Amino acid sequence: MRYVMLIVSDESLEEAASPEEAKAHEGEIWAWFERWDGHFGEGGAELQRVAHARTIRGGVVTDGPYVELKEVIGGIVFLETDTLDEAVAIAATWPGLKYPYVSVEVRGTVVR
């Protein structure tokens, strides 16, 4: 079955990392993808910062998500596993989860 990992974080805390910390974290992320190779569906993406986003609601376009929103989706990863439990077990190893401002939501996708 196909599941999606929604990677959520507080961008302001993420941006506080030093260049060395950011580079080390990026290496951890690439190692994570190598570890779980074979469990990824097509697609997935790191998203640009919310400063580059636009929201359309009721025909009105506004900058980014609502200002008071601290946590935003920073990326998505598609997983191909047999069960939700297996997808959750893989998602629970996401390197960013060592930071208190990062969370990962796992959902099954709907096939119609």
Write the layout of secondary structure elements.
Blueprint: E1 2-10, H1 11-14, H2 19-35, E2 40-46, E3 54-57, E4 60-63, E5 71-80, H3 84-91, E6 102-108
Antiparallel strand pairs: 1-5, 1-6, 2-5, 3-4
Domain YCII-related: 1-95
Protein name: YCII-related domain-containing protein
Pfam family, one: YCII
How many strands, which pairing sense, and closed or not: the largest β-sheet? 4 strands, antiparallel
What is the CATH domain class?
Alpha Beta
Number of distinct beta strands: 6
CATH superfamily: Dimeric alpha+beta barrel
Helix-strand pattern: EHHEEEEHE
CATH topology: Alpha-Beta Plaits
Shape: globular
Structural class of the secondary elements?
alpha+beta
Mean of pLDDT:
88
| Low-confidence regions | none
CATH arch. level architecture: 2-Layer Sandwich
Q: From the alpha-carbon coordinates, what is the Rg to the nearest angstrom? A: 15 Å
Give me the oligomer status.
Answer: single chain
